[in-house]
Design a protein that fits this description.
InterPro entries: aa-tRNA-synth_I_CS, aa-tRNA-synth_Ic, Rossmann-like_a/b/a_fold, S4_RNA-bd_sf, Tyr-tRNA-ligase, Tyr-tRNA-ligase_bac-type, Tyr-tRNA-ligase_bac_1. This protein is an alpha/beta fold. The chain contains 19 helices and 14 strands. Bound molecules: adenosine-5'-triphosphate and tyrosine (TYR).
């Protein structure tokens, strides 16, 4: 898979700049997160950082972040916001991940040039299931595999459809809608940029911010939630929620933004840009995820170690020092890749990624032999997979013909004898050689056939 490169972040739109403040000046937990570059800004700007620090020191708080079910998996951009929640949980706070079963029907205009395609209810239900699985896996892996958390905080995954289900549209707009001022809604960056675009903006998108604000209010009332996290593109929606809650309850609530991860062209890494690195195995395998992080350029690896892992900062410093001495070993890159793969796919996923790396880049037979069908298919995603009946006396030539890897007749014969074919990373030059178990056929019942430089065929032998 051609993995997109990740680059330095674009500056946040300056429209909001006077309204929030860099988070790194606040104390304690926020300062620690600020030093990792994880939490970018806090809202409201002036009073926010000090009040928020005080609030966090006063006892466990509840923090939430939302994810719309516009795909059946989360991606690494979302991972950052999930890890933001996990940082709070590890510090003893309660966290809530909200899946936007309702908001997903509207489509958030934030950071988008055009409207999302409407999804059917069945597709949304399927996506909700996939995202829930991702979230639960991430929370569970962080809890069990990353030591050093302070116990106590709770973890919840909710679907915002549950608090809209009972409400009629007219009743909702009549009671909630009247607290929103058109002028303020129109001034949001997400609205402004879309109104001036050729496509314009639908009513569904326009009222999106009312729903996200109401979610925040709902969680404030039911779970005493006073903090919402989101990527910088979410600031407008978070500000609307803040104003709504403040107007109704008089209570101060806070927003924290996380930096947006972008590709080399400066586009947010995600679904819309079509460059997502997914967290579900069937979309991006543990091996692909691992390789994506191993391949990050030197200039970005330290920042990613701070953002995407829980490795303490002094240890990251040491790893980087070591890298200065032995850059060819790419130690920080491998550490980053291992930590993220473990968080996303667990210990087994990491082992699988390492096994695939060994099998592909180090031509390790031992690693190949331990691979499952699924791993081999993930490793050679584009490679044809064939199930072949093993008959006594099957020769190299027969195998190649059975999977249509070579043409029939003299040309195919010649391709083998001239050294163009290998089985399990070993060249086979005798077309009439009979296949042997443990040599051409691995003990896991598989053979990896290669013709030329790049044409791989995965063969699963039946009735061994
Ligand atoms: N590349 C990214 N970097 C940091 N945060 C991100 C990134 N992509 C998404 N997020 C954050 O993840 C949360 C959930 O995003 P959501 O899944 O609803 O949409 P999305 O992935 O941004 O969609 P799309 O990629 O289609 O625009 C939001 O807080 C969003 O800001
Ligand atoms: N609007 C967010 C997702 C979200 C949904 C519901 C919320 O309450 C909060 C956030 C996004 O598209 O990225």
């Amino acid at each position: 898979m051609a993995a997109p490169m990740i680059h330095a972040l674009r500056p946040v739109p300056c429209l909001f700049r006077p309204l929030y403040r860099r988070i790194s000046h606040s104390a304690g937990f926020l300062e620690a997160a600020g030093r990792r570059g994880l939490f970018k800004d806090v809202f409201p700007a002036e009073s926010g950082p000090s009040q928020l620090s005080e609030l966090l020191r006063s006892g466990p708080q509840t923090v939430y972040c939302g994810f719309d079910p516009t795909a059946d998996s989360l991606h690494i951009g979302n991972l950052l916001t999930v890890l933001g929640l996990v940082h709070f949980h590890r510090a003893g706070h309660n966290i809530i991940a909200v899946i936007g079963g309702a908001t997903g029907l509207l489509g958030d205009p934030s950071g988008r040039m055009n409207e999302r395609e409407a999804l059917s209810q069945e597709k949304i239900t399927e996506n909700i299931r996939g995202i829930r699985r991702c979230l639960e896996r991430l929370f569970s892996n962080c809890e069990t595999l990353v030591p050093g958390a302070r116990p106590g905080g709770t973890v919840r995954v909710l679907n915002n459809e549950q608090w809209y289900r009972q409400r009629g549209a007219a009743e909702f707009l009549g009671s909630v809608g009247r607290h929103f001022r058109m002028g303020t809604m129109m001034s949001r960056h997400s609205v402004q940029s879309r109104l001036s675009s050729p496509e314009g903006m639908s009513l569904a998108e326009f009222v999106y911010q009312v729903f996200q604000s109401y979610d925040f209010y709902q969680l404030n009332q039911t779970h005493d939630c006073r903090i919402q996290l989101g990527g910088t593109d979410q600031l407008g929606n978070i500000m609307s929620g803040h104003d709504f809650i403040h107007r109704i309850t008089g209570e101060e609530v806070f927003g924290i933004t996380l930096p947006l991860i972008t590709n080399s062209a400066g586009d947010k890494l995600g679904k819309s840009a079509g460059n997502a690195i997914w967290l579900s195995r069937d979309k991006t395998s543990p091996f692909e995820l691992y390789q994506f992080f191993v391949r990050q350029p030197d200039g970005i690896v330290e920042r990613f170690l701070k953002l995407f892992t829980f490795i303490p900062l002094p240890e990251i410093e040491q790893v980087m020092e070591q890298h200065g001495k032995e850059p060819e070993k790419r130690l920080p890159h491998k550490r980053l890749a291992a930590e993220v793969t473990k968080i996303v796919h667990g210990k087994e996923g990491l082992e699988s990624a390492k096994r695939c790396t060994q099998a592909l880049y180090n031509s390790s037979l031992e690693a190949l032999e331990k691979m499952s069908d699924q791993e081999l298919q993930e490793l050679f995603r584009e490679a044809p997979f064939a199930e072949v009946l093993l008959e006594p006396g099957t020769r190299v030539m027969d195998l190649c013909l059975k999977v249509s890897a070579i043409p029939e007749g003299a040309r195919g014969y010649e391709m083998i004898s001239s050294g163009g074919v290998s089985i399990n990373h070993k060249k086979v030059t005798n077309p009439d050689e009979v296949l042997l178990l443990g040599h051409h056929i691995l003990h896991n019942g598989l053979s990896l056939l290669r013709v030329g430089k790049k044409n791989f065929y995965i063969v699963k032998w039946l009735h061994l």
